[in-house]
């Protein structure tokens, strides 16, 4: 092993892995806190992407350290993941539970001013909560932030990976800001960080009506295609304007005739047919085929880049689809 690799392994062992592990333990402590909504027996385990990436690179001499997320961003990411849990005692002791329409408008405006591009509202299902996590409320404000197209077009590349991590970071900051905003206005809130988080975000975003899942398992939004990162803020506000319909279900039909992401995936990691697990959760990819390539190639993202919804306006694709 070269000196540089030895040094990097040491840094991972002494700094990165213990720090990430501590944050995961802190997140898991939410399941022991009072009044938390807990996962179901058949809820999914969370796959801890940064930790698993580091472990794979660390243990496999063929894997280059250069393809890992930029370490400079790690302190901010971890700091905001910790804030999700550590800020919970700041919730008001007698929170309000009804918001006026004016306040809800103000909330959406505030979210936009914090850098969030799309806001939706949904009821969280217990099956969507990750094992070992607890969530304070099942009223969810769903947040989507755009990922830069110029950088995404270069995928897989270091600039793409850096941009993705920066988007995670910006959205994590925004989610905490929104939780803080709610607390200051007398409402109880818990932020959900985009990196991992406490629950599955794609089904939550679909319930909020802000998009539909594609064959690669990722959300397609009318505004940005797949180029979004998702997060949530869970709140005690009981009268959120929940979405009644999702107008994007036609995308399933479109996807069935498209399949570009399946053909372009370099490791054949996207299933021809999605699978419904016992929990009701739908699985779209083979993790064991995707993950090593993902780690070795700056988070890959080819299946995001090639999707037509990134390249053509949603309305045009829908019009062509509707006209057969
Ligand atoms: S990230 Fe890359 S390897 Fe993984 S499913 Fe998408 S295209 Fe395939
Ligand atoms: S590339 Fe095609 S099949 Fe894959 S998610 Fe996009 S529209 Fe659906």
Order of helices and strands: HHHHEEHHEHEEEHHEEHHHH
Number of strands: 8
**Class inferred from helices and paired strands:** alpha+beta
* Radius of gyration, whole Å: 20 Å
The whole-number mean of residue pLDDT values reads 94
The general outline is: globular
Written description of the protein model:
This protein is an alpha+beta fold and 324 residues long. The protein has one domain. 44% of the residues lie in helices and 13% in strands. It contains 13 helices and 8 strands. The chain has helices at 3-28, 49-59, 74-86, 101-113, 149-153, 158-184, 202-207, 250-258, 260-264, 287-296, 302-305, 308-311, 314-322, and strands at residues 118-123, 139-146, 189-192, 212-213, 219-220, 228-235, 270-276, 282-285. The strands form 3 sheets. It has a 4-stranded antiparallel sheet. β7 and β8 form a beta hairpin. α1 packs parallel to α3 (74-86). The longest helix is centred in the middle third of the chain and has 27 residues, at 158-184. The radius of gyration is 20 Å and the shape is globular. The protein starts with a helix and ends with a helix. Bound molecules: iron/sulfur cluster (2 copies). One iron/sulfur cluster binds at residues 214-216, 254-255, 258-261, 306-309.
Indicate the topology:
Blueprint: H1 3-28, H2 49-59, H3 74-86, H4 101-113, E1 118-123, E2 139-146, H5 149-153, H6 158-184, E3 189-192, H7 202-207, E4 212-213, E5 219-220, E6 228-235, H8 250-258, H9 260-264, E7 270-276, E8 282-285, H10 287-296, H11 302-305, H12 308-311, H13 314-322
Antiparallel strand pairs: 1-2, 2-6, 3-6, 4-5, 7-8
The structure holds iron/sulfur cluster (SF4) (2 copies).
